[in-house]
Every structure is written in structure tokens, then in C-alpha cells.
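PROTEIN DESIGN WORKSHEET
SECTION A - STRUCTURE
LENGTH: 488
C-ALPHA CELLS:
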């Protein structure tokens, strides 16, 4: 069966796009908050559930694995069966998982709840696809920039908010609050968000989905456990080898099935693979830094570094990064119209690298760490804000969901790589007190800065396209869809 794009008749009066944008923003913010809300309180959860560190880290690993598997799959299903329908399902998964987590009596059930929450990763590609379908061409770039910036803002905000929520309301409100928000968003999305005017019909083959899930699980599990097992441990090596074999098998199957889950021809497009490479390297820098800067801040000063911060105090030191990421997301689109989105990605990556190098050598006072994080947030905010737009512009409307889903997935893979590498560097040498030596953090932040510099060089390979060129392409596609609807 051939994969053929068609347009479905649309209702005469559609929801105003700003109402749709509000629902999408809340949906994406809720999902990204859930990525990081539990990071600062893992030690408290370990005590609360009377478990060990290895078990409690599965609250992160399980969520990560689930989101990595379902993000591209939900995006592809949205392209085929309707983005609004799958958005509601993704939000429902977030709500159900949050409710289950809030009520979980054991650590095992809490991990299962986190896996259910990971299905909500579908909100990312679906949001970008709906924006492309519903917004006027001149508004698409700004909307995509803001939603893209929420990926970084939400992750940072989760770390900032975890302490105050836990100390004032208790750890279960880390899940009750997202449940209330996502359940409400699911109902509102079902009522007000219009259904997709573009579909890609055809039965989705099961084998590509199984192979995609299998190699992602093997890779991310190996990377997440490598710092604990050791990079040379047979389990680590075995999982990475299995991931490579399954990846090759997945690609071969995708090239032969009638309706691929991920179109390999699309993945080879210059505008797609270069943007994905940048996303991978940005993920290395961003997720690892958010994961380890709180640990640095909370280290007692008696060890020669750190500030002995509480969870709340450590979060406040990171607040400038979240603020700057959000602000740069608001201005990224106007800047891109002047100098081009490719240039914004390159400049943002360089600024992020500068901030990371500042963090490596300039961290003896809390205000210095806050300033360094503000610089990092400025750079990453600029770069993230333009990545999704570049991906959207590089593919057809029918591929928006799956292409942006894979881009988000690749960022997650980058985050897993960065976190694993950073953990290995930081924990290579310990002080008699049991805390890592300062040189581990310094070297780790230098490596993360190098990854962001590499993202800048990768950004130079992205095909040049002006923001106006993107808008013209999207406007022509919109006109084509309207003609198809009129013809139907």
C-alpha cells in the first residue's frame, strides 16, 4: 500500500489559533515539567519508599525509555489518524500516569506510573503538527519557537519548582498538580482543538515499531546504567551492541515495508539530518547540565566546592536559566527573520558553550553559578527555539509529526549520552567524605561546553533558508490543502 497524503474536509468555523496555541503550550509545558520534577527529590523518594538508589533511579530511566519509544510512534499515528485525537490520548496518558503516581503505595507502582506518563511524549510532535496545520504562515515561526523553548524551560522549571512543592505540600503533589493540569488540558483539547486537515493513510506496520522500540530501549538502558556498571562491563557493551544490530535491522525493514513508520528518505534530507545532529549535541549539553548542577550546588562547602544548598535554594540558582530560555524563545522568531534560523542556531550554540565554560572555571560563589546558567539558558533557548521550525520546513505536512517526534527523540538520546558521560567523569574520583572531587565537575562542564561548540559547527551544515522562505513554503502548502479540500 502506498503512503499517500490527502486532506479531510474541515469545519467551516474553526477554533481561533491562539486558543489552540494556549492548549498546546500547557500540554508541552506539563510534559516537560514531568521530565525533571523528580530529579531533585530522588533521595527523599528513596527514603520515603525504603528502597535503594539503583531502584529509585528507575523513576527517571523508566520515564525516559517510555517517552523515547512513544514520542515518534505517537507522532506517526497522529499523521495517519488525526493529530487532535492523538493529542488527547497523549494528555490522557499523562493524566492517568500522574494520578497513578500520586496514589502509588510502592516504588514499583510509582515506576509503572512514570512509564505510563512517558506515553505523553507524543504531545511534542503533535503540537508542532497542529501549529503547522492551523496557524497563519506569519505566525507559525513564532508559535513553534515558543513551544520549542518550553522544552528547555519546562525541564529547568521542574528542577526549580520541585523543592518548594515538596517542602510545602509533600512529594505527592509533584504528581497531583500535573494530574489536575493535564486532565483539564485533555478535556479542553477534545472540545476546542480542531482535527487535522491532513492525513497520511495506510496501515502502520508492526515490525518497524517493535524494532524501533527495541533498539531505543537497549541503547538508553545501556547508556543510563553505564556509569554504575562501567563502560567495559559485559552488560553495557552487550546492550550497546544489541542496540546497533537492532538499529541496522530497523533501517532495513523501514526501507522495505510499504508504509514505513519512519521514512528513511526523509531522514536523509540535508535539512533533517543536520538539524537532528544539532539536536543530539544540544541534548548532550542541556540535559546533563540540569542533572548535575543541582548536585554541585548541594555539595557541602566543607568539600572545597559547592554551597550546601537545599533543594529549594539549588533550584533558585537555576532559575535564571529557565527565565532566559523562555525570554529568548519569545524573541527567537523575530531575530530569525532578520538573520535566518540557521544563524540563530549557530550563535545560540556558541553562547551556550561560553556559559558552560564559565560554569567550569567560575563557580566559587552562588551568584557566579547563576550568571553562568543565565548565559547557558540564553544560548540553548535561542538554538532550541529554531530547531523545530527547521525540521518542519524540511518535510512535507504529512511528515511533520514523525519528523519532529524523531527530532525530540534524538534530543533525549543526546541527553542520555551526556548524562552518562558526565556521571562517569564526575564519579571517577572521590574525596574521603564520599563526595566527588571538584575536578570531576570542572572536567565534565568543559566536555559539555565542547558538545555545544560541536553543535555550532554542525549547525553550519544546515541548509540555509530564510524565515520568510519557511513562511512562503508553509503558505503554499496551506493553499494546496485548501484546494484539495475544495476539490473533495
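SECTION B - SEQUENCE
RESIDUE ASSIGNMENT:
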Amino acid at each position: 500500500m502506498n503512503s499517500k497524503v490527502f486532506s479531510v474536509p474541515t469545519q467551516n468555523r474553526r477554533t481561533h489559533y491562539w486558543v489552540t496555541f494556549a492548549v498546546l503550550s500547557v500540554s508541552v509545558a506539563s510534559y516537560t515539567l514531568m521530565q525533571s520534577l523528580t530529579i531533585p527529590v530522588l533521595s527523599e523518594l528513596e527514603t520515603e519508599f525504603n528502597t535503594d538508589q539503583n531502584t529509585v533511579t528507575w523513576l527517571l530511566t523508566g520515564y525516559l525509555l517510555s517517552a523515547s519509544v512513544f514520542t515518534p510512534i505517537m507522532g506517526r499515528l497522529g499523521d495517519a489518524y488525526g493529530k487532535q485525537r492523538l493529542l488527547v490520548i497523549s494528555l490522557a496518558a499523562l493524566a492517568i500516569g500522574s494520578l497513578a503516581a500520586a496514589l502509588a503505595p510502592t516504588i514499583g507502582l510509582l515506576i509503572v506510573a512514570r512509564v505510563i506518563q512517558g506515553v505523553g511524549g507524543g504531545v511534542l510532535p503533535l503540537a508542532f503538527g497542529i501549529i503547522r496545520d492551523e496557524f497563519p504562515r506569519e505566525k507559525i515561526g513564532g508559535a513553534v519557537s515558543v513551544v520549542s523553548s518550553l522544552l528547555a524551560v519546562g525541564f529547568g522549571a521542574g528542577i526549580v519548582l520541585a523543592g518548594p512543592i515538596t517542602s510545602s505540600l509533600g512529594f505527592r503533589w509533584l504528581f497531583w498538580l500535573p494530574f489536575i493540569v493535564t486532565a483539564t488540558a485533555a478535556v479542553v483539547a477534545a472540545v476546542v482543538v480542531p482535527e487535522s486537515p491532513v492525513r497520511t493513510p495506510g496501515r502502520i506496520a508492526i515490525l518497524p515499531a517493535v524494532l524501533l522500540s527495541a533498539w531505543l530501549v537497549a541503547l538508553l538502558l545501556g547508556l543510563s546504567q553505564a556509569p554504575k556498571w562501567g563502560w567495559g562491563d559485559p552488560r553495557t557493551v552487550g546492550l550497546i551492541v544489541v542496540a546497533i544490530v537492532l538499529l541496522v535491522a530497523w533501517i532495513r525493514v523501514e526501507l522495505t515495508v510499504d508504509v514505513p513508520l519512519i521514512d528513511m528518505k526523509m531522514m536523509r534530507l540535508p535539512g533533517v539530518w543536520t538539524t537532528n545532529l544539532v539536536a543530539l549535541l544540544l541534548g548532550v549539553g542541556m540535559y546533563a547540565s540540569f542533572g548535575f548542577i543541582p548536585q554541585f550546588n548541594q555539595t557541602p562547602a566543607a568539600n572545597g566546592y559547592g554551597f550546601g544548598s537545599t533543594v529549594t535554594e539549588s533550584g533558585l540558582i537555576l532559575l535564571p536559566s529557565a527565565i532566559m530560555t523562555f525570554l529568548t524563545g519569545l524573541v527567537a522568531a523575530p531575530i530569525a527573520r532578520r538573520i535566518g534560523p540557521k544563524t540563530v542556531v549557530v550563535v545560540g550554540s556558541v553562547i551556550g558553550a561560553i556559559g558552560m565554560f564559565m560554569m567550569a572555571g567560575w563557580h566559587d560563589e552562588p551568584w557566579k553559578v547563576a550568571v553562568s546558567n543565565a548565559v547557558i539558558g540564553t544560548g540553548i533557548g535561542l538554538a532550541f527555539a529554531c530547531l523545530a521550525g527547521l525540521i518542519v520546513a524540511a518535510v512535507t505536512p504529512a511528515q511533520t509529526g514523525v519528523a519532529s517526534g524523531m527530532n525530540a527523540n534524538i534530543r533525549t538520546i543526546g541527553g542520555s549520552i551526556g548524562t552518562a558521560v558526565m556521571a562517569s567523569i564526575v564519579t571517577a574520583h572521590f574525596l574521603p567524605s564520599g563526595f566527588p572531587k571538584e575536578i570531576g565537575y570542572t572536567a565534565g562542564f568543559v566536555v559539555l561546553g565542547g558538545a555545544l561548540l560541536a553543535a555550532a559547527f554542525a549547525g553550519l551544515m544546515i541548509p540555509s533558508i530564510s524565515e520568510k522562505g519557511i513562511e512562503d513554503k508553509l503558505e503554499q502548502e496551506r493553499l494546496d490543502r485548501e484546494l484539495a479540500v475544495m476539490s473533495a
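SECTION C - NOTES
Confidence is low (pLDDT under 50) at residues 9-13.
The CA atoms of residues 116 and 123 lie 14 Å apart.
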